[in-house]
From TrEMBL:
Coiled-coil positions: none
Pfam family for this entry, one: Amdase
A GO MF label: isomerase activity
Keyword Isomerase: yes
InterPro entries, per database record: Iso_Racemase_Enz_sf (IPR053714), MaiA/AMDase (IPR026286)
Protein name per the record: Maleate cis-trans isomerase
Keywords annotated in UniProt: Isomerase
């Protein structure tokens, strides 16, 4: 049975989201659609950098290209643009995330958010002040994140790091391995208000509910909080059945 023009038009999503991703990221485009309703479509462009290594130098290099990437993704006429790199949006200190969002908006003429902004707002939404931090990063990036979180009003009480330099290595960590590493540190994690798991190329979303149940604490992750803020900023009111306390909130 053939579809009519009206049938096809009714199947077009109401809201388009433009996603600006790091070149090596392979996780966001898999995880995000699972937690967005059919009324929202996701459209991605890459923000160039010359190496898959996650270092201060490579992250700052990538942020020099946000304007050109913003103008590119603006061509799909999204209602919102999300800059989906955690480390690139905190690497230059407090306010850097807001600066990137302003630059994207200026280049595209559209509202913009960043993952780091989403993390800060998400942690505040679950009432977290003292957090256990989990990252895949090397030391220089970890320290920049700790400094950013502390300057944002949080206290990082503990750090679990996989100490991975290459983005591909990060994406290949099974989410079950991440979960077990966090649970091995459960005693310290329970002393904080929440656990925060950083990096949009780190597989996390399918383990959040299990971690929250085991730790009896909210768990906030880069991808989860970015999805949450996308929905909030775009006026999407769907509630997720999984994905942790933050995504389940009304």
């Amino acid at each position: 049975m053939s579809s009519t023009v009206s049938d096809l038009q009714s199947a077009v999503p109401d809201i388009r989201i433009g996603l600006m991703a790091p070149p090596p990221n392979v996780v966001m485009e898999v995880e995000f659609p699972r937690y967005l309703p059919d009324s929202v479509s996701l459209h991605t462009t890459r923000v160039p950098r010359s190496t898959p290594a996650v270092t201060r130098e490579s992250l700052l290099e990538m942020t020099t290209n946000v304007e050109s990437a913003a103008r590119c993704i603006a061509m799909v006429e999204p209602q919102l643009i999300a800059f989906g790199c955690t480390s690139a949006s905190f690497i230059n200190g407090i306010g850097w995330d807001q600066d990137i969002a302003r630059r994207i908006s200026a280049a595209s003429g559209l509202p913009a958010i960043t993952t780091t902004t989403a993390i800060v707002e998400g942690l505040r939404a679950v009432g977290a002040k003292r957090i256990s931090l989990v990252t895949p990063y090397v030391d220089e990036v970890n320290q920049a994140e700790i400094d950013f979180l502390n300057a944002s009003g949080f206290e990082v009480i503990d750090l679990i790091t996989f100490n991975l330099r290459q983005s591909g290595e990060i994406a290949r960590v099974p989410s079950e391995v991440m979960r077990e590493r966090v649970l091995a540190n459960a005693e310290k994690a329970r002393k904080g208000d929440a656990v925060f798991i950083s990096c949009t190329n780190f597989r996390t979303l399918d383990q959040i509910d299990r971690l929250e149940a085991a730790l009896e604490k909210p768990v906030v992750t880069s991808n989860q909080s970015t999805i949450w803020l996308i929905k909030k900023a775009a006026g999407v009111h769907s509630i997720c059945e999984t994905g942790g306390l933050l995504l389940k909130e009304k």
